[in-house]
Write a structure and sequence with these properties.
single chain, 458 residues, alpha/beta, FAD/NAD(P)-binding domain, 7-stranded mixed beta sheet, 44% helix, 22% strand, globular, binds flavin-adenine dinucleotide
Length: 458
């Protein structure tokens, strides 16, 4: 069988590896140029936090040994507070519960190399999908430079073409499909923290750095060359209003001025990116078309799970294909049934984490709660697992993780209430004695006053 994959991002390239392993012929069409042929400037790359789900998928396909040397560990969050303190919040209670920063370009080129080395996989870069017949799985593609159009036939088309998927648009066109899209009122711009003149890192390298704030937020991932790539998040309209970015950031996050020597230039030159969240259904049309990754569930990036969940999708789809040999329709239906409830929950969690990063990180109460969570996780290994740990350091399905975290919260609240009640009960005799004493004292004062006035004491 021949499968056409549209999009060579994390999902499309990993899926090509999986499909090749099952013996499919795979043709991948990607509108961008081959990332292996671009020099560093041309392929300016964002870095992404790789965590347990992505690692499990990449291990499954045999690629993590190649990728480890291309990653930088992030052992926790370094939170930059306005007074200059930078408390460090570990990512997990146990060693190994950490994230790994990887350049998107490094990840994709490794995946493309691996996929291309499999028999039956061909990449067609610079080809954009412009049309699709969902009944026959026939795609229409156009070469980005020459404009030459061609028709691609296959047994099925899989849309791994990101949040604004054209495959999705053609697949849903004219059908009773659901599509819920939100564009966050905040956008983002990339800013660099370069290595210092002597090549060392200007700040702690093995951490995700966060500058939390109500009207601006910066997050920075480390790179292997000791630089960090920062992402400044602001309400979209603010980007245009800020005349002096150094003054703006200097007022809010004073240490960024030393860390970002090219701030003004990069602020002026780098484009504003937009953040989109998508929930949609169906994810497939019969046995002919299916969606994967951001194409069917784009989330805001604040939980660092968009790519990880896209990679996990590939593992789930691969298993479904394996469980339904020769029946792609059944495999696609099973894949949506198994996966969508969980990616819907991830969408909610990613929205909540925006509020956490922006508003709550500075709160001492929140930091205390995080510490308590880690202490409980250490004291009760395997029995108390914080939500963040389940999402980032395990492959527990997202909705199951949330349900368990809610049960733990209920227990914690119950335990808190029990401690409070027990405290009251223990204190009850002392309180009663106090009440009796204060009544006695009041009566004594009254008697004294009446005696001074020459009246009977009572
Ligand atoms: P994409 O990466 O969007 O890839 C789609 C591919 O399809 C692209 O190569 C595109 O060129 C191609 N394409 C599009 N249209 C067509 C067409 N018509 N024809 C042919 N090709 C086409 N996720 C994490 O897990 N961890 C993080 O730390 C993290 N940080 C992020 C930070 C930011 C600022 C943003 C915006 C996102 C972040 N994400 C993160 C999310 C992550 O980038 C995405 O979830 C992930 O890239 C989705 O992979 P994908 O392959 O589904 O789609």
């Amino acid at each position: 069988m021949r499968i056409t994959v549209v999009g060579a991002g994390p999902a499309g390239t990993l899926l090509a590896c999986y499909l090749a392993r099952r013996g499919f012929r795979v043709e991948v069409y990607e509108r961008r140029a081959d990332p292996r042929l671009l020099d560093e400037d041309e392929s300016r790359s964002i870095n992404l936090g790789l965590s347990a789900r992505g690692i499990a998928a990449l291990t499954d396909i045999g690629l993590m040994d190649t990728l480890w040397p291309l990653t930088v560990p992030m052992r926790g969050r370094a939170i930059h507070l306005p007074g200059g303190a930078v408390p460090f919040q570990p990512y997990g209670a146990h060693e190994g519960e950490i994230l790994h920063s990887v350049l998107r370009r490094d990840l994709i080129t490794t995946l493309v190399d691996h996929a291309e080395a499999q028999p039956g996989v061909t990449f067609h870069f610079r080809h954009r999908l412009v049309g699709l017949d969902r009944e026959t799985a026939t795609a229409r593609v156009v070469h980005e430079e020459t404009g030459a159009a061609s028709t691609v036939e296959g047994d099925a088309v899989i849309g791994a073409d990101g949040a604004f998927s054209q495959v999705r648009a053609h697949m849903h066109h004219g059908l009773r499909a659901e599509h819920h899209q939100e564009i966050l009122e905040w956008g983002y711009k990339e800013l660099t923290i370069p290595a210092a003149g002597d090549g060392s890192a200007r700040t702690r390298l093995e951490a995700l750095h966060v500058w939390p704030g109500e009207d601006a937020l910066i997050v920075a991932h480390p790179n292997r060359d000791n630089s960090l790539t920062g992402t400044l998040f602001l309400p979209v309209e603010r980007f245009g209003e800020i005349a002096d970015p150094e003054e703006f950031l200097g007022e809010r996050f004073p240490d960024t001025l030393d860390l970002m020597p090219h701030l003004a230039k990069e602020y002026a030159e780098h484009p504003v990116g937009h953040l989109v969240s998508i929930r949609t259904s169906p994810w497939h049309h019969r046995d002919r078309v299916a969606l994967i990754g951001d194409a069917c569930h784009a989330v805001y990036p604040f939980y660092g799970q968009g790519m990880n969940s896209a990679l996990e999708d590939c593992t789930v789809l691969d298993r479904c294909v394996g469980d339904h040999p020769g029946d792609l329709g059944a495999a696609f239906a099973e894949y949506q049934r198994l996966r969508k409830p969980h990616t819907d929950v991830l969408d909610e969690l990613s929205k909540q984490n925006f509020v956490e990063l922006r508003d709550r990180l500075r709160s001492p109460l929140h930091l205390l709660r995080k510490k308590a969570d880690l202490l409980l996780a250490r004291a009760l290994p395997g029995r108390w697992v914080p939500l963040y740990t389940m999402i980032s350091h395990t492959t527990v399905p997202y909705a199951d993780a949330l349900a368990r975290a809610r049960r733990q919260d209920t227990l914690l609240r119950g335990a808190g209430a029990a401690v409070a009640v027990a405290g009251l009960l223990a204190a009850a005799p002392a309180v009663a004695r106090l009440v009796r004493l204060s009544r006695f004292a009041r009566r004594a004062r009254l008697a004294q006053r009446n005696t001074r006035k020459g009246e009977p004491p009572c």
